TrEMBL record:
Stored SUPFAM superfamilies: Chelatase
Gene Ontology terms for molecular function: lyase activity; metal ion binding
Membrane spanning stretches: none
Keywords: Lyase, Metal-binding
Protein name: Cobalamin biosynthesis protein CbiX
CDD domains, A to Z: CbiX_SirB_N (cd03416)
A Pfam entry, by short name: CbiX
Superkingdom as given in the UniProt entry: Bacteria
InterPro entries: CbiX-like, Sirohydro_Cobaltochel/CbiX
Amino acid sequence: MSKALIIISHGSRSQDAVAAFTEIVDLVREKGEFDQVAGAHMEHSKPSIPQAIEQVAQTGAQEIVFVPYFLYEGIHIKEDIPHLLDEISRDYPDIRFKLAKPIGVEPVLAGILVDRAKAVE
């Protein structure tokens, strides 16, 4: 079964932010865990979520896992993204859609915050 991963960002008008997100997507792709890895943005940037879905669907994805590149389970995670994916999935009846949790609270993040704080001393 061909599995794709679409990493979802909020999107940004900042080209630096978009470039950093693209770098994360590339790092995940290099891990080689999925047949395809794509990035998508909710707003302000391209590709949009529907565009990314179309891209991986056209290349044979049978399952798409969506991972929000968000820290917390706010409205976008609880309502907006699930609603959008539910609507779009109707156009792709042969593809299984799965939504993962956002990054959330992870011990590794505490270490990163401490490292950033120490870097300015």
